[in-house]
Design a protein that fits this description.
- The chain contains three helices and 14 strands.
- It has one domain: Beta Barrel (Lipocalin), CATH 2.40.128.
- The protein has helices spanning 3-16, 19-22, 68-72; strands at 38-45, 48-55, 66-67, 80-89, 93-109, 114-116, 119-121, 126-147, 150-173, 177-200, 206-219, 222-238, 241-257, 262-279.
- The two termini are 35 Å apart.
- The longest helix is centred in the first third of the chain and has 14 residues, at 3-16.
Length: 280
């Protein structure tokens, strides 16, 4: 367990233990996430990450599938902001929003030759890489089953993925001179999905929640699959504020054939999400 995660968990425990002393007397019933119109979570996402990317030089010339952590010593973890919002309308319908972003980079002497777009870097070259990932999710859902302290729903939505990557290193020119070359590439991909969620609240203080989004299809310039899931717990501290801890998982495997990026991307991000929640 990394040091930031340890510090975050200790802080959450220290905050949660005296929470019962600070909170107002709770009303009878269940956690407000099952009833309130708006629910919002704002916090930090501490994912472990993996990136395997490929950028072809042309339709006929294939670039290498590059494990960026292995090739460039790209960071495996990154602390990043993440936010979630739910808006209920009527008795059955909801719209959800989610956003998170990570930016990682690394530098290493290459152990083997690599080709990124039309740039070939030889083994022994000092090279660096950066990856910037942004994911925004909008999801429309309907409650199909609910009762005393629980709720189950399903629906459909859209993930918007912004992915930018760059590789930089020295190449030999004129048989005697080295120059630094850099290649950037980026893609924005709309990825529709279906999904479901489940909430369970034993009382007005606690709620346990789980959700799952899935996509696998081929359309326009994209062909691939997506998983976005999370499971966690929330404790209501005050009437309109709580604290939450969940474990989130995001994975995408997509082939891209566009003017900006001709290649593929395999991305996996998973880790704890610690947040403050607000409801009204």
């Amino acid at each position: 367990m990394t040091q930031p995660v340890k510090v975050l968990l200790v802080a959450a425990i220290v905050f949660a233990l005296p929470a019962t002393l600070w909170s107002q007397e709770s009303n009878s019933g269940y956690h407000p996430m099952l009833d309130d119109t708006f629910s919002m979570n704002i916090g930090v996402f501490l994912p472990s990450e993996g990136f395997t990317l490929q950028a072809n030089a042309s339709d006929t010339e294939l670039g290498d599938e590059i494990d960026f952590e292995k090739a460039f010593n790209v960071d495996e973890s990154d602390t990043t902001f993440s936010g979630e919002l739910r808006w209920r309308w009527g008795e059955k319908w909801s719209v959800w929003g989610q956003y998170f972003q990570s930016n990682v980079g690394g530098e290493r002497v290459l152990q083997e030759d690599i080709t990124w777009r039309d740039l070939t870097l030889q083994a022994g070259t000092n090279a660096s890489a950066d990856i910037d990932t942004k994911v925004a999710r909008v999801f429309f859902g309907r409650v199909f089953a609910q009762g005393d302290g629980y709720e189950f729903g399903a629906g459909a939505g859209l993930h918007w993925l912004d992915l930018a990557a760059s590789v930089e290193g020295q190449i030999l020119v004129n048989e005697s001179e080295f120059v630094v070359e850099r290649r950037d590439t980026d893609v924005s991909a709309p990825l529709p999905n279906i999904g479901a969620w489940y909430l369970y609240s034993p009382n007005s203080r606690w709620v346990f929640q789980a959700r799952l989004d899935w996509f696998s299809a081929s359309f326009d310039d994209y062909d691939g699959s997506l998983w976005n899931a999370g499971a966690g717990v929330n404790f209501q501290v005050f009437s309109h504020m709580g604290i939450g801890l969940s474990y989130n998982f995001f994975q995408i495997d997509v082939d891209v054939d566009s003017d900006d990026w001709n290649g593929s991307a395999e991305i996996e991000q998973h880790g704890p999400f610690a947040s403050l929640s607000f409801n009204w």
